[in-house]
Request: fold
Amino acid sequence: MRTLNWYVTRGFLLSFCMAIVVLTFVMTGANLVQAMDFLSRGVPFSLFLEFTLSLMPRVLTFTIPWAVLVGVMLVFGRLSADSEITAMRACGVSLLQIMSPILIITFALTCLCLYLQVEVGPPLLGHSRELATETMLDTPEALFEPGRPLMYDNAAISIMDKTEDGTLIGVQIYQMDKRGAMALDISAATAKLRVDHEQRRLMIRLYDCLLVDKKSKPELRNAHAEMEFGFDYGKELNRIRLGVRPKYMRLKDLMAYIKLERMMNHSTIKEEIELNQRIAFALAPMAFLLLGMPLAIRASRKETSVGLFLSVLLAGGFCQTIIICKSLENIPQIYPQYLLWLPNILFQVGGAIMIYRISQK
Reply:
């Protein structure tokens, strides 16, 4: 029996490891592209590495359940297609004995997902967002790219080109008023950047510039050989640090926040949705195992593509259902925070029924 358990477990672990590597790489792809773009423009490698590692716990909470599903679909699909499950059961080995090692592993992975969802992932996700903002604010000269406008304070800044020594060419600055209307239109042939890290101010010295006052009637135009503008880019970072969004709170902090909001008679529907969503996603590995195994046995195909296709459909349906339930946060009468449990209930109950029926044959 030990040999049989190791045979099944080895196949599952191999498929699981390959799936989690591929899925994690795919899910971090967009963030890695952005981070590598920053790296190519002068952001230190240490910040790039810290940003990437901060994202990993959050990403793993989504890739671990999906990798479990892929591993289960591939392993039990192959065992069923080769009639190995039939042979095992003919020798007196029950379906529960066959799946028991994977059940134990999946339970451990579920506990890991729960820990990542409620304790590790949210604060590190918040740290990655703060780190990205801090990098943008502390090294603003690295973020100027031709054709890509940047927003600082109440101004939009774009450039046509940039030299190796950091000189900006073809600078255009649009400064807005409090209502979002254009107040100043400033253009310059070239510009130099100076960053005051202590005061957190970005100083832009413009050369051969034209200033157009859009608020005056008629518009006033003034040419200047040289002028300097300063932007207080530290205000945004200070605003981020003053308050932590519920999305980035640990479990105990989130529950304390919900309790405080209730005492103040404030609506807590969004926070409750966040709390239930975390736990629902954390329990996904067990739900995927219970439903994926009987589906893989019934599909009984040797083609790997069938198991992969079914895993994509199931994982996609699970996530999409939770997203739809979350989108109903503006309709508290239907209790969307509890509707989030619908995919887990359907997957686990449906899977348990299917496993029972297969075991009775």
The chain has a mean pLDDT of 79. The two ends are 22 Å apart (CA to CA). The longest strand covers residues 182-196.
